[in-house]
Amino acid sequence: MAGLSPSERRLQKELMSLVKEPPPGVSVDPDIAERNLLQGAAGTLYEGERFQLQFKFSNKYPFDSPEVTFVGQNIPIHPHVYSNGHICLSILTDDWSPALSVQSVCLSIMSMLSSCKEKQRPPDNAFYVKTCNKNPKKTKWWYHDDSV
Amino acid sequence: MDIDVMDNEEITMLLKYPMMRKIVKNGVVHYQGAIDINEIIYKVSVIETDKGYIVELPTECGHLHDDFVALQPTLHLRRIISCLDALKNLIEKNVPSNALANNCDIYIQVLFEYSEFTKFHVSLKSCYLHHDLSKITVKMLDEQNKEHCLVIKVNYDGREIFEISDYDLPVEKEELKVSSSLRVVYDHFAGIVNELQPYFRLMDEFDRNCYILDPVDHKNRHNYRRVWLDDNLSMIITINPFRMCQLPEIKFLGPDRLTESYYSNINRNILEWNANEDVFMEILKLIGLEEYPLKPQITIQEDVLVKSGDCCICFSSRLNNKLPEVICKHPFCGNSYHVECLYEWLISLNARKVFTTIIGQCLNCEKNISCPIPS
């Protein structure tokens, strides 16, 4: 893998590992490698549903967190997920650490969905979607609720 | 009617370089003649091709050949005048204005020394004098039949004539002799090689019997070895090549819970260090092992994203050929990081700098971790 930067080498490695041994409920879109498919875990509110996540990496990855949003037709209805796909999750911004990976972000999002008690949009959804930046990392998130 | 006319370009050239002339031979344009640089006349010949100008370097400037080749791509598709300008610049920059006259003496001395030298040395495997008299490449065999290669440069700038410019020994360049006698330079080098025989033997022993993590492509000048001991544990042994009986410097790399017992072994066994015995086995006794651990079997971990010992940030073991050297000191964490990776992360968090280290938290266990600031 000569010629790749350390950041590209790491991404290459992460992709290989995701394709070869994806965590349960996750699969990589073979055509567009930057998208992951997420399947609602059994026994939760989202059982049987499928969601698509998009990861965008800057060249400062892994020092800089990836930009992660839900894309496609089906955006999960969840108190931390806005209808434009933006996710309010601290590890995607303030609590990001280079020791995290695409895999661990997927697992965090799965667990966030799985622990949901009631399907509903965030209370400020309408306002946020109208006013927010396209890049969710530009939003100053206010992490108020740790329970879900 | 075929009239031989002078074009503007040729006139410009003649005004600046009056000793050059344009000749057309068999339909090919040549520029031949001489140019005057610092009152020395250089013969110059240039051929015009459809790919650009091909300049023949004046014979006196043989040692500038490499610089000129590097310059050549920029000469293509330009005018003859700029081509000659470039040549003139190069010579002006590199040849001190009155040095050329003195060089004959040096040439004679180099040739004389060289022919004497090749006659009398038996340990030489091969010896070449470069045709421009700029350097001599020597290959020698030591008493273990190990080959050593050295390049002896010829100085034309008034310093001692012979100087070793390229070699592979664990010594600083300043320790090698510079002299006007080729034999003195070589004999001194061969003397060092001779003195280093026990050192070469020891290093070979490490390379044959241990699993060496670093340096991968080891050369004679590398006087240290990073030896694999266990997953997540290795030691760096640094040998003083000239004082083999001296206790080598041993540093263990790994989580504290693993390294502690080794350090206490050393403290216990240090009094039994016997400089007259085989150093390789003495080191083993010192660290308290029966034998050096063999190369581990190919692990089942192949598919795991981050193997133990890999850097937790770039997810690989080698970065610019260096292994992760910072290891979290907290028992049961022991995650490893490359100095560069951890530093880049901590600095992005505005972590606290104390002298030559930066202090932050381990990404894994969030306990304090300190990282040397890379130079």
TrEMBL record, chain A:
Which Gene Ontology terms describe the biological processes this protein takes part in?
A: protein ubiquitination
SMART domains xrefs: UBCc
Which of the seven top EC classes does this enzyme belong to? transferase
According to the UniProt entry, what is the EC number of this protein? 2.3.2.23, 2.3.2.25
Using the record's annotation, list all stretches that form the UBC core domain.
6-148
**Pfam families assigned:** UQ_con
Q: Which reaction does it catalyse?
A: S-ubiquitinyl-[E1 ubiquitin-activating enzyme]-L-cysteine + [E2 ubiquitin-conjugating enzyme]-L-cysteine = [E1 ubiquitin-activating enzyme]-L-cysteine + S-ubiquitinyl-[E2 ubiquitin-conjugating enzyme]-L-cysteine; S-ubiquitinyl-[E1 ubiquitin-activating enzyme]-L-cysteine + [acceptor protein]-N-terminal-amino acid = [E1 ubiquitin-activating enzyme]-L-cysteine + N-terminal-ubiquitinyl-[acceptor protein]
Q: Which GO terms describe its molecular function?
A: ubiquitin conjugating enzyme activity
Return the PROSITE patterns for the record.
UBC_2
Metal-binding as UniProt keyword: no
Record bears the keyword Transferase: yes
Keyword list (alphabetical) reads:
Transferase, Ubl conjugation pathway
Q: What is this protein called?
A: N-terminal E2 ubiquitin-conjugating enzyme
Species per Swiss-Prot/TrEMBL record: Callosobruchus maculatus
Highest classification ranks of the organism: Eukaryota, Metazoa, Ecdysozoa, Arthropoda, Hexapoda
UniProtKB/TrEMBL annotation, chain B:
For this record, the Gene Ontology CC terms, alphabetical, are:
Fanconi anaemia nuclear complex
Q: Which is a Pfam family this sequence falls into?
A: FANCL_d3
Xref: CDD domains: DRWD-C_FANCL
Q: Name one GO molecular function term.
A: ubiquitin protein ligase activity
Gene Ontology terms describing biological process: interstrand cross-link repair; protein monoubiquitination
Superkingdom of this protein's organism: Eukaryota
Cite the FANCL UBC-like domain residue spans from the record. 199-293
Domain called FANCL C-terminal: residue spans: 310-370
Q: What is this protein called?
A: RING-type domain-containing protein
Q: Which organism is it from?
A: Callosobruchus maculatus (Southern cowpea weevil)
